[in-house]
Amino acid sequence: MEGYRNVFVLLALTGLVVPGGASCRHLVPYNPDPLPPALPPTPTLQQIITVVNNNSSRIQSFSTDRAVLSGEGFPTLRANVVFQRPRRFRLRAELGLTGPEIDLGSNDQLFWIWVRRNEPRALYYCRHEQFAASPVRQALPIDPNWLIEALGIAEFDPALPHQGPFPLSAGRLEIRTVRETADGPTTKVTIVDGVKGVVLEQHLFDPQGQLTASAVTSQHRRDPLSGLVMPRIVDVRCPKAQFSMRIDLGNVEINRPLPNPAELWTMPGYQGWPAVDLGNPNAFTPGTEATLRRRDLRSVPPAASRSRS
User: Fold this and answer.
1) What is the CATH number of the domain that holds 88?
2) Of 120, 134, 152, 119, nearest to 8 (Cα)?
3) What distance lies between CA 163 and its chain's CA centroid?
4) Which has the closest alpha carbon to 140: 198, 212, 90?
C-alpha cells in the first residue's frame, strides 16, 4: 500500500494545502445514516482492533465523483477520487469554468502529480522503488505511509505494540502505537468511537514527542451494498508544515466495478507540461523544492475563490 499514499504528501507540497484552519463548507447535502453499535460495553484492545481491521481490510476499492477539496487560501475544488488495492489511486480536481486543476495518480509502477498552475510547468512522477532514496523524500513533512489512513482506511498492524484502550470523554477510546523508524520511535495515537468502533482521530508524534500530523474524520457512513463504513469528512493538519485541508468525499461507493480501469491507472500526458522524474537526482534542485511548496492557486481571481454555501 506504499505507492498511492505518497500522492497525498505531494498534494501538500504543491501548495494546495496551505496555512490556516480547514473550511467547514459542504457543497453536497449530507443525510446522516446512524451506525449501530459494533463494540460491547468496555471493549478490550483486541475487540477494538478486530472491529476496525475487519472493516478497513475489506475495503478493496472505493470511488466518488462528488468529492470537494477546500481550505483557507485556495478555491473550493470539485474532485473525482478512486482507490484500488494495493497501490492504485487517482484524484482529479477541477475549478468551475477553468477546467482541470489537479491530476494525482498511482499505478503499480509509479505515481505522478500534475498541477495546472505550477511554475515551471511540469508533470512530476517517480517510480515507487525509487521514492525512499529520492531527493524529494527530504522535503516531506510527514511519513507518506500514514496519509492514506487519514481517508478512513486505518488498520492496526498486529506486529506492532499497542497500548490501551484508555477512556476519554464522550465515550471515546484512545490507543497508542509505537513504530520504529530510521529517525527513532514514533507514536501514533488513534481515537475510536467506543460504541460504533469507527476511527475518529489519528495523531502522529515524532521521536521528540512533537505532533507532526493529525487527521480528524466525521460523518461516517455505511455503504448500502458492501455494508462497509468510511467517513465523509476528513480534516488533515500538519502543524510543522503549517498546512491544513478538508476533504469532503461525498457518498463514497465501496467495492464497485471501476469504470475505464486502463485509463484510470495510466500516467497521463499534458501538452506543454514536460515529464520530470523525481527519482532522478538531477531533477530535484532547491529551486524545484520551492516550486513544489508554492501556493500556486493564489493566482486564481478572488471572485473564483469565493465558495458557495
Assistant:
1) 2.50.20.10
2) 152
3) 25
4) 212
Distance (Å, whole) CA 288 – CA 299 = 19
101-147 residue pLDDT tens:
889 888 989 888 898 887 788 998 888 888 767 776 655 545 545 66
**What residue type is 116 in one-letter code?**
R
Give residue 143's domain range: 2-305
Packing angle between helix 286-293 and helix 2-13, nearest 10 degrees? 80
Q: Do you know the residue count of the chain?
A: 309
The DSSP code for 97 is: G
Omega of the bond leading into 161 within 30 degrees of 0 (cis): no
Cell reading at 58: 475489506
Q: Where on the phi/psi map is residue 197: left (φ > 0), alpha (ψ -120 to 50), or beta?
A: left
Domain count, the chain: 1
Phi-psi region of 99 (alpha: psi -120 to 50; beta: other; left: phi over 0): left
144 grid coordinates: 507518506
pLDDT digits (tens, 9 = 90+) for 7-22: 444 454 443 333 333 3
**Minimal CA–CA distance to 307: which of 15, 74, 65?**
74
Question: What is the sign of the dihedral through the CA atoms of 169, 20, 177 and 229?
Answer: positive
Nine cell digits for residue 117: 498552475
Distances (CA, A) of 80 to 68, 111, 233, 264, 300: 9, 17, 15, 11, 21
CB atoms < 10 A from the CB of 21, how many?
A: 11
